[in-house]
Amino acid sequence: MTSLPSANPPGWTAPAALGPGLLAAVGGVAWQLQQAALWSGWLYAGLALAALVLVVCALRFTRAGHWRNGWVCMGLLLLGFGLTGGRASLQAAERLDPALEGRDITVTGWVAAMPQRHATGLRLRLAVGSASLAGQPVRLPPLLQLGWYSGAWRADPADPLALQPSPPEVKAGEQWQLTVRLKAPHGNHNPHGFDYELWLWDQQVHATGYVRASAKDPAPQRLASSWRYPVEQARQRVRDAVFAQVADPQVAGVIAALVTGDQSAIDRADWDVFRATGVAHLMSISGLHITMFAWLAAALVNALWRRSARLCLWWPAPHAALVGGVALAAAYALFSGWGVPAQRTVCMLAVAALLQASGRHWPPITRWLLVMAVVVALDPWALLQAGFWLSFVAVAVLFATNTGAESQGSTRAWGRFRLIFREQAVVTVALAPLTLLLFGQFSLVGMLANLLAIPWVTLVLTPLAMAGAVFTPLWTLAASATDALVWLLRPMAGWPWATYATAAAPLWAGVAGLAGGVLLVWRWPWPLRMLGLPLLLPVLLWQAPRPVPGEFELLAADVGQGTAVLVRTARHSLVYDAGPRFSSESDAGHRVLVPLLRALDERVDTLVLSHRDADHTGGAEAVLATQPQASLLSSIEDAHPLQALRPATRCHAGQRWAWDGVTFEVLHPLAGDYQTPQKSNAMSCVLRVSNGRRHALLTGDIEAAQEARLVASGAPLQADVLLVPHHGSKTSSTGAFLAQVSPRFALVQAAYRNRFGHPAPAVLARYDALGIAVFDSPGCGAMVWRSAQPAVLDCHRNAQRRYWHHHPGAE
Description:
The chain has 811 residues and is an alpha+beta fold. It is globular and about 100 Å long.
């Protein structure tokens, strides 16, 4: 056996400045992502060029040592900043011209990704070839995110010509001519909420809209099939084949996600189980799946290569196996959607293969930083994804806590099991604080669930799902394996102590907790490890700041075209309305309110549903399901479906209660109004919140008649902040009512470019004439007002402003 020489040959180890330089480059990217607005593209280009000159001069004209390393790191920091800013400037130049919003535009293009079908139609991504408006060519962003809906969506149900038929089958790669209405990418902005605009920016989508396909519109035309987007075509064929083979669509969705990376195919109920048990990472193409595929591919290439003496003489079989394994793993990752875990794993495998083939030995931390830098170079905005940090921190923890002794001595089954158990324990403990920081909860049963699910998913379910692409009957076996997995996990998810949740902690608490978790699993004596426990306490026990007794806070959530307001006192909370239902699969409760309440660690005492309209009750089911102690106060009828979930107490004028020195009083409707048929808007529960000095008035969808009655009744209407009646409809906000309320701030909860035209220009003029400051959710996002600071209204969209965010009226 030939031993390695005692002296390292040239190039054997990594350059001393490589690790810090890579970290500096990633830091430069992270720095640029904090910009609220972009500079000129030329300024970024000049900065990147100057940074490159600085790096070259430092390497060429300075002596090796700390000064050289410092200048190199500074140059790479600025280079990362400049290149990312320049790339962002190029993307920003592709944004939709505001003058084209809401216009009927004829677009010819190709379906660039496999469409997603849902209950009301389908979603598709279109690569634009050409576009015209009234016969004149116009420039559109290269990629459009479109909805193609059926029925009366965005139409008058009474007009049969306005109804849209169900969309036909649409396949990736097809060329279509469509009439579309577009708008700038615009998502809801809420504390601790999902950044939809960032997601679209990262996908390089700079316009969203919907297909016009009613009898009044030009008929959509499928022009041709094409060779374009072959990977997406293959993914769609495999996904459709899975659903054709597996009878249960819920099970088929899991299999499709494992094979093609289409996570949207997984049912929401299954996602809840997977998250509660901590195995959600297994339900997509994870690093474990990619590694397993690479190992199998390398073994196959190695075996086939050795069958040819000529090939072995031309290139050694181990090297061919390395390249083949990485190449096939990269192809599989690309086929599966190229998510961050897949990118990280492919880059890690490629770096390991290159180092092994070249005989170089780099420390794990240098390899880790190199992979991180490559992933960030490919996708700078991946730095803002939770999956990025979970993936890289998990690998870093395993590197840091692995001495290599256990892995070298783990050839027997028991040794391997001990190694797997230890690695799972290390990852679970070390990542618990980071998971709490990112998601506000972590699974207490996750370690047990993963010990059972990882071998089952990795060795049984995933191989069967992947092999089914070659021999479809194997998907039937994969379906049985999926059923067995869910059968095992569902009882765990139902345990009362399955998850631990706390309020979303600040960044410093999460970083301290992560350090404490790593310290606990480090291979040091236990007395030293125990020093990590105090570092865990801030993130584990964090409590969101609350108003002091006698004060209250009002948060008008950004839920689109609907109403949802959270009122908090020192020890109590009330939710006024629950926002709209977006589709049969999605509503404001699941998307906005439940995550918001979890992030604030709120225990809701009362849910008030002002009236039965879907834009006020759409998210109520989700809120009630996660807040079993909450009472329901509403004007909904006795036969309303929500009554079966939580019997409602009728709201009526005269109801009054106090929490922590804050009084809540119902001003409308009258008890007698329930005896005669009324429009739903007329039955809106009007709620006044007051601490004796400052007041807020929540009005639902009352209209002019109800406003006049409130004024005539002498009800206490004066308020510092007013939730604008009926989203700013021209049927509400009469002059007499506004004069009586006399608010400092008026809040409009409405969707960007909503089809109702809320708030109406005439209504805004009345507010302006009275000197009332109006804020709306499209321009402000979530709006927060505090009785302790009555002259201040915080807009979440402004406080968290980044250059990829849309700001109506700022174009």
